[in-house]
Amino acid sequence: MQAHWTNPNVINWCQYLLDSYVHWTKLELMDRSGTLLTQAERLFNSAFVVASHGAEADPILNYGNQAALNLWAMDWQQFTQTPSRLTAESPNREERTRMLQQAKIQGYISNYRGIRISSTGKRFLVNQATIWNIHKPDGTAIGQGATFSNWKYLD
């Protein structure tokens, strides 16, 4: 089976994700040397978590690198069909919505902290996450991304 990060649509999405991260934070998320395919592979195999969702009314996850797939205990197919809100337990969804709205208004937020839940019910605390708006080069908003490398299981 072909790796998901080799799909041309995923390669394009990775570029929007990476370019938008630089736009808002003025920092590179990772080394951007090499081809677009090389960058997509590097992002997918990074040790830190990267996940994103689209701009739908009830956003669906549309990208998760291997670290994200492992953390949420899903394969690519499951992950990219999951409403983003389901990454948080019901009591934490309102706070999550407020955080995403704040990022939407400001462009990005850093040092986010919140509790998330995997597909198997494992709860974990995310620390020092950055959430940012993803847009096309023309400025069209197309989603939001999140990255973090600091989490701990709670159960």
TrEMBL record:
InterPro entries: MEKHLA. Residues 12-152 form the MEKHLA domain. This is MEKHLA domain-containing protein. It comes from Nitrosomonas ureae.
